[in-house]
Amino acid sequence: MRLLQASLDKFKNITPKLSGESERVICLEEETPKAEIPAGVENLMERFARHSTKKSRGRKTQQEVQLSIVKKATNEDGKEDLKQEHISIILEPEEQEINPKLKVPGAKLLHLKETLQQRMKERREQEREKRQMAYNIDNEEMGGGEGEEEEEEEEERKAELSDGIYE
């Protein structure tokens, strides 16, 4: 209790004063000062806004591109030299055909999955046909003997069953 009284006596003699950084303005009218957003967060939000507003990646105008080609050539003396050629190419603007059904989020992925599954089904069907043809060819080569063997086995079984019944 005495400690509390002693600390209160010290604070009674102190007069309050406002202080702060020299660049900051102290405003007594606002209830709470707004929290400052760190620079890293601001940069991240700006990058997100830039990337989310990009619409197309294709070229909208003609572009001239300079290409340099390096070739290895042999002289009359038999020495190999490198020669550089410059070519300018004009790239035409790209036209992207966007299906309005594919503008829905996830629609492109579903479309891709469907086309891949269709290709897989076709490929499996082709493989099955090849295997079936190979199987048929193998059976035709051995074909005559198998049918006779099966018939003989069935006759033997019937004979064994009939022998067992009459004894």
UniProtKB/TrEMBL annotation:
Instruction: Give GO terms: molecular function aspect only.
Output: anaphase-promoting complex binding
The organism's lineage? Eukaryota, Metazoa, Echinodermata, Eleutherozoa, Echinozoa
| Example GO biological process | mitotic DNA replication checkpoint signaling
Mind telling me which GO cellular component terms the entry cites? Answer: nucleus
Q: Which domain of life is it from?
A: Eukaryota
Alphabetized, the UniProt keywords read: Nucleus, Phosphoprotein
From the Swiss-Prot or TrEMBL record, state where the protein is found. Answer: Nucleus
Acidic residues bias (residue ranges)? 138-155
Name-wise, this protein is Putative claspin
Q: Which organism encodes this protein?
A: Stichopus japonicus (Sea cucumber)
Question: Where does the record place the region Disordered?
Answer: 116-167
Comp. bias (Basic and acidic residues): 116-132
InterPro entries named in the record:
Claspin (IPR024146)
